[in-house]
Design a protein that fits this description.
With 330 residues, the chain is mainly alpha-helical. 68% of the residues lie in helices and 1% in strands. The protein has 17 helices and two strands. It has a two-stranded antiparallel ribbon with strand order 1-2. Helix 6 runs antiparallel to helix 7 and helix 7 packs parallel to helix 15. The longest helix has 23 residues. The termini are far apart.
Length: 330
């Protein structure tokens, strides 16, 4: 076989793998579950902005004048710095999150959400954290994803009889979300290894001593133990590296995601990191198996229907259907 034929064969195999990975139709149930979870998270995020909305982003707040932005950067609130416009931006962001939750024109809702989040974050970038950036990035993918195909108000309105079916679509948007998760962890490992405190195993002790950022007091035997600090520091790096690499292996996937869940749970319990851990848990949902998600959603539906049917029966029928406990004579 000639070298040209070998190259063509290899190219065809690579192209075929690319096509299967991004464009072989799959159930849209996992995407719908992700959209619903993201809608809940982004709605909560928007509501948490309300108590300090005018203090952080208003013309009479801590930053009266919007900061200077470079060419190409823009935001509604950097162009119009007023209380009424701020209120409209916040309300539009809230409504777009609710629209994503119920599945009402989710592509348009994601665009409105992006405009609102960019407006708030450009107006006062000093109150940002990694969780805000993560949620904003996830909204980009929902602009292109067919997330209204399942479990949405749009589907109910369009085809009520087949609402509980899950059309198969090309999963390229889901694949990009999956790639995003892997990139987040690999980039985090790379960035951390550029600093001395992660390489020498002391990074965790600094995080646990930021008293103004702690949600719960850190046990002294943890922050003061060089051995435990090294374990937690290198364990964090190993967990993030494992997720970034082995989440693509079906056998290892749930082990590494489980380790990631526990890692983020410990961060969430002790350190105030905004919505970062919650956003990452939401992103984990894009790795749900399509067929298993179909069955789980339908099982929840059937259980809810059975409970409703049981509640609708007269009390006498429910009592008659309840088996009497057996009595064993001694």
């Amino acid at each position: 076989m000639s070298a040209g034929a070998l190259v063509r064969g290899a190219g065809e195999r690579v192209w075929g793998a690319w096509e299967r990975f991004f464009f072989t139709p799959e159930s849209t149930a996992p995407l719908a579950v992700f959209r619903i979870a993201y809608g809940i998270v982004i709605t909560l995020w928007t509501l948490t902005q309300l108590p300090h909305l005018f203090v952080f982003y208003g013309p009479d707040g801590v930053l009266p004048t919007p900061p200077a932005v470079s060419a190409g950067q823009w935001g509604v609130l950097t162009m119009v710095n007023s209380v009424p416009v701020l209120a409209v931006v916040w309300l539009a962001t809230l409504l777009s999150g609710l629209a994503l939750l119920v599945g009402t024109s989710p592509r348009i809702a994601a665009i409105v959400l992006l405009v609102g989040m960019v407006a708030l974050t450009r107006r006062d970038p000093y109150v940002l954290n990694s969780g805000d950036i993560l949620l904003r990035v996830l909204a980009v993918y929902l602009v292109f994803a067919p997330s209204a195909e399942s479990l949405s108000w749009d589907r109910w309105r369009r085809d009520r009889e087949h609402f509980w079916e899950f059309p198969r679509r090309a999963p390229w948007a889901m694949r990009m979300l999956q790639v995003q998760l892997s990139v987040i962890y690999l980039a985090a490992v790379w960035a951390k290894l550029q600093g001395d405190v992660w390489r020498n195993g002391t990074a965790i002790t600094y995080a646990l001593r930021m008293l103004d950022q702690l949600r719960l007091p850190t046990p002294g035997f943890v922050a003061g133990s060089p051995l435990l600090v090294e374990w937690f520091t290198f364990g964090t790096l190993l967990t993030e590296l494992s997720i970034g690499l082995f989440v693509w292996n079906r056998r290892a996937r749930w082990w590494v995601l489980g380790a990631g869940f526990l890692m983020h749970l410990s961060i969430e319990l002790f350190i105030m990191v905004g919505f970062f851990s919650i956003g990452m848990w939401c992103l984990y949902l894009v790795f749900l198996p399509p067929e298993g998600t179909d069955r789980a959603v339908l099982a929840l539906r059937d259980r809810r229907r059975a409970r409703r049917a049981d509640d609708a029966r007269p009390p006498t029928e429910r009592e008659a259907a309840t088996p009497e406990p057996s009595v064993t004579e001694s």
